[in-house]
Each structure stands twice: as structure tokens, then as C-alpha cells.
């Protein structure tokens, strides 16, 4: 799938749970009309979850089934994919990748607020400290399409949205049909 065959770009919004992906994606989708694909929700709705992990209190993904189901919509373009990892997805799906980040105190407070505890809480904080998702993104996509965005405050959220709108405008300008 070539970028040129899409009439609108595909954006990946990734980062450790709690960095604010869903909050940003919802606003971005409302403002732009791009489709917000919240991967965990889609996986649940389409029976793409495998066995339950009692320690992490979550399920693993049936990646093959999920990716097959998304291929058509991703080929068409115009999607914002929201997921805490970029590992399952083919590189060709995305025109740009945003990795949201916070400081550890902010993330800790947000995850506690969401009821995370024990190993799940500690692992997610470690994930942010070691920038695991950013490292993963850098090794999965061309480095010039991977961008880190600090997303600690409402002000930063607004700046991040403006930056993405700017990038989108440029994409449509460069890829407009003759
Ligand atoms: N930029 C921000 N400033 C302040 N609070 C935020 C910001 N982004 C998200 N939040 C809050 O942080 C929590 C986690 O956000 P959420 O979007 O659910 O994260 P994720 O989808 O990455 O797990 C929510 O309570 C949300 O309101
Ligand atoms: Mg979310």
C-alpha cells in the first residue's frame, strides 16, 4: 500500500497507558473528521482478544485476526490509530507516528486514578522511564516520521493538536489530487 493511494493519511498515536492517547485522539477525530480507531475497543468488539493475564489484568491480542480486519479501512486512509504499542502494525500503514510522553509523577497519578496497582502500575511507570514505546517506534518506522510529544498539561495537549493540524494541512497540500 503506497501513501499515494490514500486520499487521507493514517496517523498512529502511541505511548504508555495513561499518557493521554484517547483524550487527544477523540479531540483530533472531532476536529478533523478522521476516524479514531481505538485498538483495544475494536479488538474487544470483534473477538480479537486471547487469554486473560491475571497479573496484568488484561488480555493479549489475536493480532492476525485484528490486522486482517483492519486492512481495508487502513488502505483507504484517514485513520487515527490509538494503541499503547506499535509492534503489531505493518510499517506501510502509517504516514506519521506520534509518541505521547509525560513525566513519571504525572503518569503515576493518572494510573493510580485509573485503579492500576502492583506490577501493572510499576511496569507501566518503567515503560515510560525507559521510553520503551519511543524506542519501539524508532525501530519500527523511519525515524523522520516518529515524533515525541510531551502531553502533561491541557496547554501541551492544545499545542500537540495544533501541531498535528499543521502537519495534516501540509499532507493534504502535498498530496492533493491533480
Ligand atoms: N494533556 C493532558 N493534560 C492533563 N490531563 C490529561 C491530558 N491528557 C490526558 N489527561 C488525563 O489523563 C488520563 C489518561 O488519559 P487517556 O487519554 O485515557 O490516556 P491513554 O488513552 O493514553 O491511556 C485521563 O484522566 C485524562 O483526562
Ligand atoms: Mg486510551
Question: What is the oligomeric state here?
Answer: single chain
Counting DSSP E segments of at least 2 residues, the number of strands comes to 7
Strand adjacency order, main sheet? 2-5-1-6-7
Number of domains: 1
Q: Which whole number gives the mean pLDDT?
A: 94
Q: What letter string, H or E per element, gives the SSE order? A: EHEHEEHEEHHHEH
Q: Name the CATH superfamily classification.
A: P-loop containing nucleotide triphosphate hydrolases
% residues in beta strands: 15-25%
N-C termini distance: 20 Å
Given this structure, which CATH class is correct? Alpha Beta
Rg measurement, Å = 16 Å
- Structural class, by secondary structure, is alpha/beta
Largest sheet: 5 strands, parallel
